[in-house]
Amino acid sequence: MRLLKLTLFLLWSLIISGPAMAAESPVVDTGRVNAQLVSNYDSAMPGDEIYVALDTMLDPEWHTYWLNPGDSGERVQLQWELPAGYEAGEIIWPLPYAIPTGPLINYGFDDRAVFPVPLKIPETAVPGERVTIKTNAYYLVCKDVCIPENTDLSLELQIGEPVLDGRWNDVINLAKMAAPKLGNVTAGLVKSGDDAVYQFTNLPEGDFSKAYFFPESQGVIEHSAPQRIGLSENGLQIKTTAGFDWKNGPPANLNGVLSYEKDGKTVGTQIAMQTELPDIGPILSGSAAGPATGSGIAKIGFFGALIGAFLGGLILNIMPCVFPVISIKALSIAKSGGEDRKTIRRDAWAYTLGILVSFLILTFILLALKAGGNEIGWGFQLQDPRVVGLLALLLFAVGLNLLGVFEIAGGFQNTGQALTQKSGFTGSFFTGVLAVIVATPCTAPLMAGAVGYAFTQSAPVTLMVFMALGLGFALPFL
Predict the structure, then answer these.
(1) Per-residue pLDDT reduced to its tens digit, 213-253
(2) Angle, CA of 19, 21 and 25, to the nearest 5°
(3) Which residues are paired to 7 by β-bridges?
């Protein structure tokens, strides 16, 4: 499948190619996504503004996430490494679509998505030089499970007489044209009881009977709640459930994107939102719109989240992320077969305690970071390449130790063998800790809805949901 995907991607590039060789990176297959950094100019003058873009092609049924990922997920991110004086702007986001995931609604993209970024070349750039534009592209790609993927991409840009590249200029221009833009719509949002009420006037031409609003920020509305449409001669009204961020008045960012139909296609317009409702007159017709009602998805509750988390934790034991640690635990069980029941029971409880303590610490860190304004989610620690590198080295060393390539002895025995061969309380406890750390890239079925629900609730509810997840994860060995 990956080979076929890569072949089609390269054939497509050859078909649209022109005679000039564009400034572009090689195509990198990160697992579920083919990624490439491209430019609409091969050569540009000092002081010019050109566009570079992350071009992604996803495996079938996999998706990545928008600026606001919705109930769960993480946005596509670009970390730039540029020559002195060069400036990269913000991503020009494509129009997202709503992705039902259990009881949750997420916002993102599938198939192919292009993310243009304006790049300002400084006046001090020297004609004749070639500069390297680098970025680290990170995206959470999800289907039945979620896998964080990233890659370093770079391209070379010539400084000199402008040379437009027809291949990528057309692709980037098409992405820019299709991206929602700020128009003349007048819009307002107020909270009425538990409802968030949007009203829009000065709408562009189109069919708004199935309109859908994508807020830029989390907490403004409940993404999984249905959006109820009301139409008048002068405008549009959308009512839905207000989100958690109205505790101290209106959230800081109310803006977003309004999608609607035009000429048989779904298009969108950016909305700059006010905190007063424009007068749209009496509502003439109404309906419920959006996938939250169209697919019959029920709203998840507290007990549903606990059950989903517990079952998701059980299933997490057979996800590929956990296999390296499961082998360690399986070997531990095999070696303790001749022990007395009290010792076996003690090790099982130590493993369970290691899992629960790890979930507790991760949840507290996550709540603290989110309280500080950070937008992070499940598996956030594995976005740090240093953590990933250390885990890769640790698991490689553990594998060599299990194969008998070397033995850890002396003063290091209690630390090294605690994770591999030692069957005591300490070894079992830290095996549980390691299991949680490496399990976090995976999201098991039924677990996604529970985790997404937990992130939108109070701290005590979040802790209880994650403790249920930990119990489910530890139960087979306990």
Answers:
(1) 999 998 899 998 899 999 999 999 999 999 888 988 899 99
(2) 150
(3) none
CA 113 – CA 100 distance, rounded (Å): 19
Please give the residue that has the higher pLDDT: either 243 or 120: 120
| pLDDT surpassing 80 at residue 204 | yes
Reduced 3-state DSSP string for 374-396: CCCCCCHHHHCHHHHHHHHHHHH
Q: What is the pTM of this model?
A: 0.66
Burial class of residue 218, CB neighbours in 10 A (0-12, 13-18, 19+): buried
- The three-class DSSP label of residue 429 is helix
Say if residues 209 and 287 touch (Cβ distance below 8 Å): yes
Instruction: State which H helix or E strand residue 3 sits in.
Output: helix 2-15
Q: Which of 70, 90, 157 minimizes the C-alpha distance to 451? A: 70
* Contact criterion met (CB below 8 Å) for 351 and 429: yes
Q: What b-and-e string marks burial along 35-69, b requiring 16 or more CB atoms within 10 Å of the CB?
A: bbbbbbbbbbeeebebbbbbbbbbbeebbbbbbbb
Element (H, E) at 465: helix 459-474
Could you write out the DSSP letters of every residue in 318-382? TSGGGHHHHHHHHHHHHHTTTS-HHHHHHHHHHHHHHHHHHHHHHHHHHHHHHHTT----TTGGG
Determine contact, residues 50/44, Cβ cutoff 8 Å.
yes
Q: Are 310 and 466 in contact (CB under 8 A)?
A: no
